[in-house]
Amino acid sequence: MSRRRTRKVNKTRPKTRSRKLGGGGILKQAGEVAGAAVAGLLKLIAPLKPLLLRGLAWAWQSRDVRRVAGVTGGAAVLVCLCWVMLGNLGSTARYTIDPARIELTAEPSWATGELAVRVKAEIEIGLRDSLSDLTATSAFDDDVMSVVSERIERNAWVQRVVRIDRRFPTGSEGTASLQPTIEVRRPALLVESPDCFSVVDGEGVVLPLTIKRDAEELKQFRSGLTDTLHIVRGVDGKAPAAGTIWKSEQLQAALSMERVVRRAQLDKSMPIEAIELVGVPQRADDRGRVFYPPDGAVVLIPDARSLPDTRVIWGRPPVHASTLELSANDKLDELKRHLDKPDSLPGARIDLRRRGT
To answer: What is the C-alpha to C-alpha distance for residues 316 and 35, in angstroms, rounded to an integer?
Structure first.
């Protein structure tokens, strides 16, 4: 009888292999999710398919819709053609702008004769120098206009760029060019210092122009001006660099007084030689308040040739006006009352801070 062989069966659970998803697996899962989303969307709008087809058929049968579609398509084609044409023209030499050769004209309307020629030349030389490092570019590039405008307005003489005209060649010769129109700053005051006079405009910006403390040079400078330029005395400190604002309460006081003198045309009845600041504070406190000492005032000094030794004590200027003094208009009325008596003006001390003085 044969012996039966038996084999022991291993009943342990087979080992399972774990596998991490790599980059390809993640992309595959993302694709499956996106496909499922698209399929769900198509299934959702499937009931609306007849309605959509009906709407498209109606739109195509409508004359107005076809007209709008035709105009829109034609405009798109025209825009594409223009874009291609501008690209081709912009690459040619005739339609290339060299910023170093921009036509610049800076006319100082406040000056005449030799002074006007000198100032005009200085402004244009400075402007060309500020544009010299710009590279040539297409005349159709709008960015070059903003860059040129920004460079020009950095000049201390330039108040603003009014506009920039872009000129294209019309004949067989010539090239494209830019023609900026510039507003030049206008002097408002001559600020006296120990060795020279600094020139500032109505905003307190220091201009790149100084005059020596020499009577003949000052007279020659004034002869080239179209309007009278008053001298300011009593501004402390050194003038900042040209093109920056002179931040001083003393200068603001003088500028506000200058505006009153010009508005009232005071030089016609009483030529003013200088505006003198007596005890006017140079700085305001932390709250912006300016405290005057009891004797602090702005004094108008008339021309010594017509009114020798005459002084007009204005008091606080408009920018620092006080309710304890007369208003600017009341002070002008008081001054007019004195001007009606010209025989009493030479050597007089006219105090406009209070009535009847």
So the answer is: 81
